[in-house]
Amino acid sequence: MKSENSDFIIGRHPAVMALKSDQEINKVFIQNGLKTDAISEIVKLAKEKHLVISNVPKNKLDLMTDHQNHQGVALAVAAYQYADIDDLFANAESKGEDPFFLILDELEDPHNLGSIMRTADAAGVHGIIIPRRRAVGLTSVVAKTSTGAIEHVPVARVTNLVQTANELKDRGVWLFGTDMKGKDYRQWDAHGAVALVIGNEGKGISPLLKKQCDEMLTIPMIGHVQSLNASVAASLLIYQGYNSRNPL
């Protein structure tokens, strides 16, 4: 059954049925140490769909599911409706502005996604594009972290980011990625139709998607730590885009 008080499908049989269907699933949680045939099947189905699988203690599953009989498994499902690419373009058009989109390549942390949505709303981003697989979706944690921005920034969930990037380019959008080697982000002129690509927290932008980028941007760092949290880096870049599009 689906929990009425959360965004989870709980129980082994409901989980198998959901994984065999076309239902939007964000993440799979499995209780530590369970090795039954049903759990093995759930893990197999989840891997076939390239979903993120987290092994967690029983007490965490208890809290996530309001202490219902989860049988050692919970599937996080979409809490909010997704848009499509046309909706993102329509959002920009309704404001009389050139599109300014974000593409998030396999972001896994819901707090990062929520924080990015908050900045995107503040800076007038017209929409966010995320992949269907190997990435966090619109969960209740994302909604809470976004502090309401989830209601105002449309999010499109697509099957293939590379194909979507090609579609955007065909529609006149220039793609800007992030990399250690690239143009100083402070020189970025985001006039026109643009999409900013933010990579995975650990791996960065996938090689195939990076090839679709028209230009790479870098954030100069002079300290000992040569990387920034994904949401912090995204915020700096988003506001550079905002500043160049809205000069003083």
Q: Whole-number radius of gyration?
A: 19 Å
User: Strand-and-helix sequence, N→C?
Assistant: EHEHEHEHEHEHEHEEHEH
Q: Assign the structural class, choosing from mainly alpha, mainly beta, alpha/beta, alpha+beta, or little secondary structure.
A: alpha/beta
> How is the largest sheet built, in terms of strand order?
7-6-5-9-8-10
Distance, first to last CA: 54 Å
Assign a percent range to the helix content. Answer: 25-40%
The count of β-strands is 10
Low-confidence stretches: 1-6
Number of helices: 9
Beta-strand content? 15-25%
The multimeric state of the shown protein is: single chain
Average pLDDT score: 90
Shape, principal axes of CA atoms:
elongated
Largest sheet: 6 strands, parallel
